[in-house]
Amino acid sequence: MFIAISGKTRSISKSSSAFNLSCIFVKYLRVAPNMTDADLLLALDQSRSMCQYWRLVLEYAESFAGAFCISSNRTHVAVIKFGTEAEVVFNFDKYSDCTPLQKAIGNIYSEGGSTNIVDALRRSRKIFTASNGARNGVPKILVMITDGRASVKAKKTVKEAKKTTAAGIIIFTVGVGFGVNKDELEKIASKPEYFFANDSVDLSSIVEKLRVATTTSTTTTTAMPVKKTSITTTSRSLNDFAVLDV
Hints:
globular, Rossmann fold, 11 strands, alpha/beta, 6-stranded mixed sheet, single chain
């Protein structure tokens, strides 16, 4: 069994009694001021299979939000969460500053339920509209954080993903939790290399691909390389981190 901590894996025993780990955890990332603008939608899996990983899901989401320059005329962020159904947490025009945005993400609660990725994809397409604060002329990015184990309308998942990509939305998938369905998440992602498993997650590498995806979809802004600048040391429970059998 391995535990994923800031993109690095540490081997532990299934019978380990170490319930408190002191580790370095990347709380968020910072980028150069002229990072390409985008409308970034975070889709968070709150289903029963993800309950024990919910804190990790939120910290990833906070990190992705902090990787862009958040303001009324730069990058906008919206969030949906999905279980048996998908629901909007807040729209693109809700926050124009990174600090309250990250605080709001950190306060999102999980309601459990089944895993309806199909509804999450359908809701994602609907939220990229002007009535929800989305804009024309900026890249549309969807980052879905999930274990990929759909339990509702599972056979329609890939079809809905293709419709979402066809609508001009670039999909990234981040697999978190026990028994991640890697094959499914690779198919959901707009490109196979846009899928990341949580046993090898490096937030800076994901943000770099986000940067490339946004800059190649528009020629109006030149982006700068990503920098890690904020790292916090904290003591965490073992259950706060995603675990995978290898």
